Amino acid sequence: MHLTDRQDIEIALFVEALRKRHGYDFGQYAPASFKRRVLGLATALHLRSVSELTERVIHDDGFIHAVIERLSVPVSELFREPQTFVALREHVLPQLASYPHINIWQAGCAHGEEAYSMAILLREAGMYERAQIYATDFSDAALAKAQEGIYPSREMPLYLENYRKAGGKARLQDYCTEKYDYLKMHDELRAHITFANHNLVSDGVFGEMHLILCRNVLIYFTDPLQDRVLGLFRDSLVRGGYLCIGIKESLSFSAVAADFQLLSRELPVFRRVAPKAVP
Ligand SMILES: C[S@@+](CC[C@H](N)C(=O)[O-])C[C@H]1O[C@@H](n2cnc3c(N)ncnc32)[C@H](O)[C@@H]1O
């Protein structure tokens, strides 16, 4: 007989409460890392068990925002995984250069670092004025921080190194103001960024996208959920549009793999191709 661990039962009930009471469905998140985050949340709130967490989720209406903030992992960097930005600069942007308007969806934007990096990349390619970046996340708390574009100065050495490796053409300091212990991204970078709430588990397509970036988000999902989300991306892209995932992520296992062509073996950048005709 298989005995389910008491904690696993409590977590299953917690997931059920989040879904039924607030409409957030974590049922298809990778179980081990999700369990770590739930237990971490209970400990941080000095609760004795996950059941106490469930109780609060059901009865305390304002509590859900803090829960989503803690269960999401809004960790990012300016020009994170810089080699991907080199690929975008050298192989993707030149292909999009002739379009009169360029739609970009950046899913799982955390605190906005990737959206600001993309804005800088587009500016340096002379394409920003024609672009619209839709930067989405399911965490309102993360989106509020993304809108502000304020980051701790202690991260600056890492950001400078990433920007250099990404082939940056100016000085990163030209795009932000450094004050005391933080740096603030310049307002003009935000001019063509729309930050919006979108849940990859339950919300629908964003039509007519030329480029979608969703990096370091799929790793938190089980294969069936990754499959759903990758289908959403395929259906949101124009034919010939590009999809960029994280360097530790893959779509080779997915049903949508046949609809995408890998640009370079070393980098997770794909182009949407016409599906093969069924003989
Ligand atoms: C580790 S961050 C990745 C940030 C950025 N893309 C990068 O690569 O640096 C993962 C983000 O995915 C978001 N996320 C997780 N589940 C989501 C969902 N179902 N819908 C939308 N965003 C989600 C989290 O809130 C978090 O901000």
Automatic annotation (TrEMBL):
<dbReference type="Pfam" id="PF03705">
    <property type="entry name" value="CheR_N"/>
</dbReference>
<dbReference type="InterPro" id="IPR000780">
    <property type="entry name" value="CheR_MeTrfase"/>
</dbReference>
<feature type="domain" description="CheR-type methyltransferase">
    <location>
        <begin position="1"/>
        <end position="275"/>
    </location>
</feature>
<dbReference type="InterPro" id="IPR050903">
    <property type="entry name" value="Bact_Chemotaxis_MeTrfase"/>
</dbReference>
<dbReference type="Pfam" id="PF01739">
    <property type="entry name" value="CheR"/>
</dbReference>
<protein>
    <submittedName>
        <fullName>Chemotaxis protein CheR</fullName>
    </submittedName>
</protein>
<dbReference type="InterPro" id="IPR022642">
    <property type="entry name" value="CheR_C"/>
</dbReference>
<dbReference type="GO" id="GO:0008757">
    <property type="term" value="F:S-adenosylmethionine-dependent methyltransferase activity"/>
</dbReference>
<dbReference type="InterPro" id="IPR029063">
    <property type="entry name" value="SAM-dependent_MTases_sf"/>
</dbReference>
<dbReference type="InterPro" id="IPR022641">
    <property type="entry name" value="CheR_N"/>
</dbReference>
